[in-house]
């Protein structure tokens, strides 16, 4: 993949500026980063004294947990579709 195919976007997540480089559309990158920012702020509102490093780890754990749940639902739906076809 060439550098010309990559997008470089500067975003703000939890008060810090990050330059994100990726092949996704700039709007997609901004959307994902805004969701990370939202989740960090949500977790921080419940735990206002947590340091940023721990907050970032908790945000990652929450995101992966959500991903695993969605993956399990997807696999379950695939099984249901397969059963309906059989």
UniProtKB/TrEMBL annotation:
The keyword Transferase does not apply. GO terms for cellular component: cell division site; cell septum; cytosol. It is found in: Cytoplasm. Keywords: Cell cycle, Cell division, Cytoplasm, Septation. GO terms for biological process: division septum assembly; FtsZ-dependent cytokinesis; septin ring assembly. The keyword Metal-binding does not apply. Activator of cell division through the inhibition of FtsZ GTPase activity, therefore promoting FtsZ assembly into bundles of protofilaments necessary for the formation of the division Z ring. It is recruited early at mid-cell but it is not essential for cell division. NCBIfam families: PRK14126.1. Homodimer. Interacts with FtsZ. This is Cell division protein ZapA. It comes from Rossellomorea marisflavi.
């Amino acid at each position: 993949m060439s550098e010309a195919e990559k997008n470089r976007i500067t975003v703000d997540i939890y008060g810090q500026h990050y330059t994100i480089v990726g092949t996704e559309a700039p709007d997609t990158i901004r959307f994902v980063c805004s969701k990370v920012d939202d989740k960090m702020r949500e977790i921080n509102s419940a735990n206002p004294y947590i340091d940023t490093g721990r907050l970032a780890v908790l945000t990652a754990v929450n995101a992966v947990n959500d991903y695993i749940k969605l993956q399990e639902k997807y696999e379950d739906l695939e099984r249901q579709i397969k059963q309906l076809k059989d």
